[in-house]
């Protein structure tokens, strides 16, 4: 019955495609808008984390070139979180660029584009979280015990824009995960 034309001479697939052209265009615009704004955020994080890796807290020893605080345990937390943030934000930028350059064919919408959006948003959230860990550890390393009272308010203030971004975009990630989960369940049901 999939190939049987209706009274207008259209197969079910052709009729579906014709009736959903507007929805496809809206979905394409939405994907492009989200991907382009997330690409900007990811690129900013890549830039900051790359610079932070080479301008480490406390600077470098003039004689050896080694970081001044390399013996502190928090310095390793800084380096690891900076690296994770750099890698995950670079990954998110690449994924979002893949979304922007997608052909947006009808077959891409059920699986390829939602999968890319899930991976892109997830890696962007990981990069934001690890960026905050790097910032917090650098702040704790840099401030003497005399100024330790300023650490918690500073970390809290720096977390406000990050939390607002996650709050605004997290619902999109949940929607994509729920959609993808229902799509996979429906697909598995059709196969069985």
Radius of gyration equals: 23 Å
Oligomer: single chain
Percent of residues in beta strands:
under 5%
Order of helices and strands: HHHHH
How many domain units?
1
Q: Could you give the count of β-strands?
A: 0
Main sheet overview: none
Shape: elongated
Which fold name fills CATH's third level, the topology? Butyryl-CoA Dehydrogenase, subunit A, domain 3
The CATH class designation is: Mainly Alpha
Low-confidence stretches: 185-192
CATH architecture descriptor: Up-down Bundle
Average pLDDT taken over every residue: 83
Properties at a glance:
192 residues; mainly alpha; Butyryl-CoA Dehydrogenase, subunit A, domain 3; 5 helices; 74% helix; 0% strand; elongated; disordered C terminus
Description of the structure:
The radius of gyration is 23 Å and the shape is elongated. Helix content is 74%, strand content 0%. Residues 185-192 have low confidence and may be disordered. The chain has a single domain, classed as Butyryl-CoA Dehydrogenase, subunit A, domain 3. The chain has 192 residues and is mainly α. Helix 2 (21-54) runs antiparallel to helix 3 (73-100) and helix 2 runs parallel beside helix 4 (112-142). It is built from five helices and no strands. It has helices at residues 12-19, 21-54, 73-100, 112-142, 151-191.
